[in-house]
Every structure is written in structure tokens, then in C-alpha cells.
Amino acid sequence: MHSNEKQKIMLLTGASGSIGAAVALAAAQAGIAIALACNSNVESARTLCKIIDDKGGNAAVFQADLSHADACTKLVADTLSRFGCLDILVNNAGFLRQQSFEDIHVAELDFTIAVNLRAPFLLSQAAFAAMVKNGGGYIVNIASSGGQRGGPLAPHYAASKAGLICLTKSLARLGAKHNIITHAISPGLVVTKMSEKEMASEDGKEKLRSIPAGRAGKVEEVAEMVLFAISGKMDYATGQTINLNGGLYMG
After folding, report:
1. In this structure, which CATH number among 3.40.50.720, 3.10.20.90, 3.40.50.1370, 3.30.420.40 belongs to the domain 9-244?
2. What is the pLDDT of residues 153-209, one digit of tens each?
3. How far is CA 72 from the centre of its chain?
4. Which are the catalytic amino acids?
């Protein structure tokens, strides 16, 4: 970042998770200030914040339960209050619990959709005004190959991620005239805390065997793709879903 450039501000949800931490560290390395949003694992986010601060970065932790609608709008307001503007929104927070289709209770369905789809919708809605005022911005939605292929062990999760991919396209159309660029990054099987149970299951092992690249993805690869999406080099590709899955899904 040149000395006369304004520091970019990123709001990152799911900051205490494996992908969130990788994105935060990569963004901080690139000179971006970060609002680290998390829910239950506040201590992990605080540890991450200290690592960034110790390296000369600029970060702050915000606790928010994104299953509540008012928490989403408050999170954007708190970010603007702390940093003064908002240039980049990364909707990374997600909830996944594998269950058989017939055992999924309506409360579980509602919670999954609230965190994985409604929250990104409301966060984007609140961030839009700030980005219009800035003369532009970036929204990056972390989707999933499950939202493209379907997910027999988590159909509610897969449906929410399919909705997120469609939301990405809508936001790209709405934002284009305001220079608000929107991308979805759709990882396949990535080694994270959240994917441990899936990778241990027979379905997960079969999925791993079916990946042409012969391995699961790394969180650092997702982080690198997020940084590329907000680099300005992909602006004309707005509204696209970037598949990052080792060839698992090529549609």
C-alpha cells in the first residue's frame, strides 16, 4: 500500500474459523484493516487479532450471532463506527451439521438458512449503502460445491449455499453501476475444523477419492482466491462463481 492510499477496510464473518483465519492473515499481509466478526469462539478471534496487531496490522474483534437479523445490521454499523468506512465484505460464516434428510428439524433448517443465506443478504444490504458512498467496493461470498452438486448428508446446507450463489449474481447486477463487484468462491472439500466430520464419513472419503487433483484443498488456497477476487484484476468477471475444488465439480 502506497503512503498516500487510503487503507481498505474489510468486514470478515466467521473470522474464528479455519478459512476465516487464513483470509484475515492474508488480508492483513496485504495491508487491509479487518473487522473480525465471530460468534461463540471469541477467544480464537482475539488471538488472531493480536497476531495481526503484533505484525503491525489493524484489526478489531466484533461478536455477533448472525442467526439474529438485527445482529447483522449492527455488525455493519459497528464496523463503520470503528473504521469509518467499509470497502470489502467477505461473507464467510457458515453452519454445517450433517444429518439424514428425514431427521432435519424445522428449527435446524431455519438456523442453517439464517446463518448461511439470510445473514449474507442482510450484511450485503447494510454494506451496500456504505460502498455506494465510497464509490465502490467488493462483496465475496464463500459458497460451497455442495450448493452446486447437492449434498445428501446436508441438504439444508447445500440449499442455503445454492441460494448464496444466486444472491451473488443478483448483487453483481445491482452493484455494477455503483462499482460494487461481487464474487462467489465455491470451495470443495477443504481441510478445516468444520469439515473434519465430513472427511471422516464414508461419503466424505468417497468424495476425497473422487477429486481429480487427488487431495483436499487448503485454507490458504481459499484465502489467495479471496485476495485475487478483491485485487481489481477480476472486476469485469463480476457475478461469477469461482470453483476451487480440485476438479470435483466443473459445471
Report:
1. 3.40.50.720
2. 899 999 999 999 999 999 999 999 999 999 999 999 999 987 887 788 887 888 889
3. 14
4. 157
